[in-house]
Write a structure and sequence with these properties.
The complex is a heterodimer of chains A (about 110) and B (about 110). With about 110 residues, chain A is mostly beta strands. Chain A has strands spanning about 5, 10-15, 20-25, 30-35, 45-50, 55, 60-65, 70-75, 85-90, 100, 105-110. Helix content of chain A is about 0%, strand content about 55%. Chain A is globular. Chain A starts with a strand and ends with a strand. The model of chain A has no long low-confidence stretch (mean pLDDT about 90). By secondary structure, chain B is mainly beta. Chain B is about 0% helix and about 50% strand. Chain B has strands at about 5, 10-15, 20-25, 30-40, 40-50, 55, 65, 75-80, 85-95, 105, 110. In chain B, a hairpin with an 8-residue loop joins strand 9 (about 85-95) and strand 10 (about 105). The radius of gyration of chain B is 13 Å and the shape is globular. The relative contact order of chain B is 0.33. Classes of the chains: A mainly beta (about 110), B mainly beta (about 110). The interface of A and B includes residues 29, 100 and 101 of A.
Chain lengths: ~110, ~110
Amino acid sequence: QQPVQSPQAVILREGEDAVINCSSSKALYSVHWYRQKHGEAPVFLMILLKGGEQKGHEKISASFNEKKQQSSLYLTASQLSYSGTYFCGTEAHTGNQFYFGTGTSLTVIP
Amino acid sequence: EAQVTQNPRYLITVTGKKLTVTCSQNMNHEYMSWYRQDPGLGLRQIYYSMNVEVTDKGDVPEGYKVSRKEKRNFPLILESPSPNQTSLYFCASSHGPGYNEQFFGPGTRLTVL
């Protein structure tokens, strides 16, 4: 049930935009997004819930298509600090077990 | 300060020597979880706990044990470590798995020789 992320890696120049996608073969009840910088723990970005509710980072936007079981994270006007690995995560239909995607490595260069 | 702590941060051991990685949180969270992170595989859940005395297997539980005797603590036990358990381990906690953010500990880098 591990979600699939795309792309696996992306390199941007400062100021450019990026989209990271997350899809699941199972019904999604919520989608989480986390960012992990090298050598550090993952840090929460946002949660998207069924029905359109969102909780999280004010400067990051994301979408959640319940019918297609997909979510996308939008990073606009990228900054050097955006570099890191982005993970989406979802919970099992029972609501207890949690699955992370394999990650998307984002590198922002000057 | 609200936090999840793990100890040790780094550990090198030999095959078969039992070890325990401790995890503690001070946020009164019900849900606690252990993940392992390996290159190209992302974060995979090992075990999780919905509350005291309630634990369940995640995606990759083989070779691991956990216990939840107190709400704040969730130790990970490797009774007979093997080289394929060499990995980066994270403990995490939250008010619940679905609608609440998870707070992660700093990680434990384990090498089994």
